[in-house]
Write a structure and sequence with these properties.
alpha+beta; 110 residues; binds zinc ion; 36% helix; single chain; three-stranded antiparallel sheet
């Protein structure tokens, strides 16, 4: 299985649904479907349901569109220095490989 041919799954224990549309991403490297993200993170302080981390920072929880528009992709990193662009890409790829390694469908089919 390559890193790319997988879809992230909701990290909520009883859910594990394939994520599409919007997903809630946390600073502790977890990701949740729109239903569980909006439910769990509407209370304050927000606690990650996967690892119990307190998520109090402004960017500790981000609601992300998983298939962003061409316009968004064209603009979101424009203007940033190449080292910052690469830094962001590296972190996003690390998040993805962590998710695929620990939460992929494959883990649940063996
Ligand atoms: Zn869910
Ligand atoms: Zn977490």
């Amino acid at each position: 299985m390559s890193l790319c041919d997988d879809t992230l799954l909701c990290n909520f224990t009883k859910c594990r649904t394939k994520l599409s549309g919007f997903a809630w991403v946390t600073a502790c490297s977890h990701v949740f479907c729109d239903q569980h993200g909006s439910g769990e993170f509407s209370r304050s302080p927000a606690i990650c349901p996967a690892c119990s981390s307190a998520l109090s920072g402004k960017l500790d929880i981000v609601r992300t569109e998983l298939s962003p528009s061409e316009e968004y992709k064209a603009m979101v990193l424009a203007g940033l220095r190449p080292d910052i662009v690469l830094d962001i890409c590296t972190r996003a790829l690390a998040f993805w490989s962590y998710q695929v390694k620990y939460f992929s469908l494959y883990m649940y089919s063996i």
